[in-house]
Amino acid sequence: xxxxxxxxxxxxxxxxxxxxxxxxxxxxxxxxxxxxxxxxxxxxxxxxxxxxxxxxxxxxxxxxxxxxxxxxxxxxxxxxxxxxxxxxxxxxxxxxxxxxxxxxxxxxxxxxxxxxxxxxxxxxxxxxxxxxxxxxxxxxxxxxxxxxxxxxxxxxxxxxxxxxxxxxxxxxxxxxxxxxxxxxxxxxxxxxxxxxxxxxxxxxxxxxxxxxxxxxxxxxxxxxxxxxxxx
Length: 231
Prior knowledge:
By secondary structure, this protein is of the alpha/beta class. It has helices at 14-27, 52-55, 64-76, 94-102, 130-144, 166-185, 193-210, 215-223; strands spanning 2-7, 33-38, 79-85, 120-126, 148-154. The mean pLDDT is 95.
C-alpha cells in the first residue's frame, strides 16, 4: 500500500508523535510505503486566489512547481493521511489550509480526478479544538469524492503528550492502533450519498449555467463525466 502523508506543520510535536504511532502500526500490518510532505516546506507559496486552476488547467497555477508533485503523489497513492495541530484562527494550521486552497480544483464541481474516488483518507489532529479541524478537512476531502474518510481528534488538555495522564495516553495510543488496523483493512465501498448528490448537482449546473467553452464544462466533457459518473 502506497500512502501519501501531508503534515500540516514542520514541528515534530504532539501531532507528529500521534502520526508516527499510526504509521508504525500500519507498517506492522503489511507492505506499506510512505511519501511524506511537510508544510510549508513542500508548498512555501501561499495561494493568491488568482483562480487560474479553476478556469484553466491546474498547470497554470503560478506555484505549479510545488503543486504538481503533490498532485502526482495523491493520484498514485492508495491512501492519504492529513495531519495538523489545532490552530486558533481557522482550526487547522496555515500550512494545511494553504495546501487545500491550492488543491481546490479537485472538488467535484471543477475538475475531479477519477482515481480519487477509489481512495481512502485519514485525518489526525491534536489540540483543544481538534475536532473542529477534523470536520473542516473531512468535508473538504469528501468534496474531492474520496471514497472513505476516517479521523481522530485528540483533545490533550496539555501542551505535551508526555504530560497527559497515563490512562489518557493509553486510551489514545490504543485507539490510534485500532484505527490503523481498521484503515488498513478497509476496502472500497459505495460512495457517500453526498458524493453522489454533488456529482449530479455539479453536472446539472455545468450543463445549464456554465455550458460549452468554459474550462470545467470542457474538462467534464473530455473525461466523459457528463455521460457517465466517475465512480
